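Moderator note: this is an archived Q&A kept for reference. The question asked for a predicted structure of one protein chain; the sequence and the answer are reproduced below.
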Amino acid sequence: MDIFSEKILDKYDLFSIDYLIKSNYRSESICLSFTKPDYTDEYKYYYIKDASTLAAWLEFIGYDTPENNCFESGYKTIKKLEAILPLDYIGNNEKLSNMLKEADKQYYHDLCNKTLPIMKEAVETSPIFLSMYEQVFSILKNIKYAITESKHYENYARTISKELEYIKEIITYLPDLREKTRIFCEDVFMIDNSMGYKVDPNEIYSMYELYCAETEKENFYKTYILPSSKRSIMQPNESKKFFNSFSWKDFYMAYLEKSENPYGGDTILSHIDNIEDFFKAGIRYMFASKSVIRKCKLCGSYFKTRYSSGLEYCTRIYKNSSSSCNDYISRRSYKKRFSEHPINKEYTKAYNRLYGRIRRGKVASSDYDIEAMKEIHEKYYEKYEKAEESKKEDVLKEYIAANKEFLG
């Protein structure tokens, strides 16, 4: 069933939007649950299923590929709702009630045909915009009920006004909320990558929390994610002498040895009532899974990994190759190590010498057993690797002599 069609409004009520993260399978899904008004039937729709964990979240806040601008495109689309929904009626229930009294089925059909395609276009750009689907669904559903029942206009007007107010607030404040999330992620989930350390992000946050307290800067996590009663495990007076002149990175380095891990647990299922819930779910899971964000040193894209991992390259396909960045670098590193190994260098020299003789017609390829040449190489490669450092040079000389004897 098309969740962006008028038909689903006719048959179902929206029960919940769930953001599901399966830690064991390293996947995420977004599921919409619908029920019939009499609760006799339930319909589940997975907009995304078993995608890479936090893929949509990272993409939305701008930590994907350099050229991905899904937020800008989706936000531009969502702003079209301002010209279609009756946002001017917010807070004026009397005016909204009168509008509902005058509205007819054609008004409802036209509103559906204008609003739902906009939602579909935005969600196709980024699944995170599904967090606004509930409000749009509720507005259209209540307008339909008001027109169908021809009564209780004031009650429907109050509900619609509340949903319209939320949509207006999101359109107004979403860019700022996203930017604050990006800055927080850069400060807590990316600082280790840029400075060459591997520290649990929960420990980093302990330092970050103290830094914000001492410098009187806004703590995004405490303001938007945690209950106001959450306290730091570190006492502010420990750092009085530092905060006047230290930057956040200075502060982080100064307290690297003092921090502890105050957070635990894992967020598996988040009920999404608004777009802020997506931001919260992503950040909480980053802490719970002890993950950090790194920038691929090959393609420049961002990826999520555990803080203790040594991974420096992502798993996206690199340019026109058939390999991921990580595999591409591994093979390139292997080739480099192979070509620089003393035994392999001598093998390459011997092989090129033999190939040159064959190409110039001085010898026939049938005169030499290439497989025997490879066996000599493998024998001395293994002997070289097992030899003590002081005896490696002797093994190399033996191999050079064996190659000369083979070539004649």
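Archived answer notes: Confidence is low (pLDDT under 50) at residues 227-246, 254-267.
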